Amino acid sequence: MSDTANMPHKPSSLRRKVKVLMDMGYRISGAALQVLTTAVVAKALPAEQAGKYFLGFTIAMVLSVSLRAGFDQSLTRFCSGLLANNDARGAGAVANYFLSRFVKRAALFLMSAALIGGPLLLIPSMASWFDFRLGIQVLPFLASVPLLGVGALAGCFFQAAGKSLSSVTLMFYVTNFSVIASALLLPSEMRSDLALSAAFFAAALLTGMAGFLVLRRQRRSPGFTAPNASTRTALDASASENAVTVICNLALLWGPLLLLGAFSSSVEAAQYNVASRIAQVVAFVLPALNFAAAPRFAALRATGRASELQKALLLSVGASTLLSSLVAIPMILGADSVMGLMGEAYAGSSSVLTLLIIAQWINGGSGPVIQFLSMVGLEKTLRKFFVVSGVLVLVLGITLSREYGANGAAIASLTSLLILNILCLGASFSEARRLARNPQTNQLPSGH
Fold first, then answer.
1. Could you read off the pLDDT of 114-138 as tens digits, one per residue?
2. Is the pTM of this model over 0.85?
3. Cα–Cα distance measured from residue 60 to residue 37, given in angstroms and rounded to the nearest whole number
């Protein structure tokens, strides 16, 4: 059986546009669900417990992304290029190679956590610090780390294949709805950060298993072979370049929140988290654009269609800027009212929300330029930009969060995102112009 036999027919222009709109609707509804989950948890739990829940969730996200550092972007890039060149078996081989590497990392992490963390918690002072800063609710989140990673890798494979509404991509909805249901349906005396984190783990278990089965199914396709040595070298090189970028991006996304938990209080962390989740609504279109644009950028680059690549970049940045502006302005004007809805503990933190709205306005207005640089092979350039911004957010976060709490953390986030997006915008348009003047096909490994 040929590779093309496993490939879907290329959709017409109208069908492709309809599919893009469906993808956007799916991603936008996902962003709205994130905000809803945050609001429900904030209302259902006391501020201190909510802060510990958000800290545990953040730690799980950081660890999961760190363990698969670089795999997501490299899987999306190479699988998109291979599928654009009708090499479905090669794409399946690449996906399973990254899955195998992640499973080994996750197993090593769990064993290390048990061997090192267990004895440490037997020390009374360490146990007291752990309970004060995090609490036992962090344990279900830690157990969710490998499950979240497997589901994310499966989602990247479907992204490359242009399939958004699959069983694996529903994991986000399942996980969030399980938390919401637990927060609303459990009796008040049973409602706690531990109960909600346990519900999160149960949903992550189901969706992680689904992701593993979906990726492993690719190995049963006719003619499947594992990547050869040269292909593995190319994949590892790309993932290594992306790994530094991913770590620095984690510092940008979650560093301020974790620093608040370390240097301020769980209440300040809860205020920052709630404001951050709400502010992300401003860039609501960006996840949808990233999902649709990333594989298209990679495919256009792989097939040497430079003029279409430049046009796709311009259109995506323009659309993101317009839509982000339409949302950001009214949200800034209504920041007081929005935070007041979250409860008394959050009513006085409207300034945090305003700063983070401006940060997300900048982030959303820049469009998928970060994805563009990654998909066209400029991982080294992107890495440099993220290192600068990641170091800056940590330095500013440590300095300002001690003195100004959540407001200081928001200022650190705003400053670092501003610098990152200016650098990425300049590099993206420069590369698009260069490719338009000198079109060339990007050679990709065969995948097997």
1. 777 666 656 665 556 555 555 566 7
2. no
3. 16
